[in-house]
Write a structure and sequence with these properties.
This is Stage 0 sporulation protein A homolog. The protein is an alpha+beta fold. It has eight helices and ten strands.
Length: 222
């Protein structure tokens, strides 16, 4: 979704030339009506829009069960670290700063789609740690008899930590494995998600599950 007609048409044509089916939207109203109907494989979302800013739209997408798992790449002329962090913390899968090259755009799109469609049939479907049960198929988390509602990234983060229980995982590794990419200095994204994840776990009575490894990262005890 991009309000600049020229850029919107350029991106649409570039995606179509890359073998994708693409549709551009100038504003949030027309976009939301279509996305509910068609469930796209990926969304490119500009931050600066006329009727509603991209971060607000991103939050709406991630809070709706019907669209929460659709990967999103943010597009913005804003290049500051805080703008990138804000997008990532609210569920974006990647962030591209304008101006960008068409080859870079297509490469990022391909990478995000590849990550979102990875299937591992041999992967264990239920994880557990300290009375916490994670169902990877149903994407549910239950502590004793209490279900804990998590965002998409919180679920991925918790699952990765539990899957690697007993091992200390660096912030850089978590950013790479859960978000699929790394931006130097932006591991605060990991810290912010761990904070909210801990709050939700503790509210359900699951305390002291995630341990901080000072100056390095996090771990879940064996």
């Amino acid at each position: 979704m991009e309000d600049d007609t020229g850029i919107r048409e350029l991106i649409t044509c570039a995606l179509q030339s890359g073998g994708y089916t693409a549709k551009g939207f100038p504003d949030g109203k027309s976009f939301f009506q279509r996305v509910q109907e068609e469930q796209p494989a990926l969304i490119l979302l500009d931050i600066m829009l006329p009727d509603e800013d991209g971060i607000s739209i991103l939050k709406r997408l991630k809070s709706d069960a019907a669209t929460a798992e659709i990967p999103v790449i943010m597009l913005s002329a804003k290049s500051s670290e805080i703008d990138k962090v804000t997008g990532l913390e609210n569920g974006a899968d990647d962030y591209i700063t304008k101006p960008f090259g068409i080859m870079e755009l297509l490469s990022r799109v391909k990478a995000v789609l590849r990550r979102s469609h990875v299937q591992k049939p041999e992967q264990q479907q239920v994880l557990s740690a300290h009375d916490l049960t994670i169902d990877l198929n149903q994407r549910t988390v239950v502590y004793l008899e209490t279900e804990i509602v998590l965002t998409y990234k919180e679920f991925e983060l918790l699952s990765y930590l539990v899957r690697n229980r007993g091992s200390a995982i660096s912030r850089d590794r978590l950013l790479e494995q859960v978000w699929g990419f790394s931006y130097e200095g932006e591991t605060r994204t990991v810290d912010a998600h761990v904070k909210t994840l801990r709050q939700k776990l503790e509210a359900a009575g699951c305390t002291n599950l995630i341990h901080t490894v000072r100056g390095y990262g996090y771990k879940i005890g064996g």
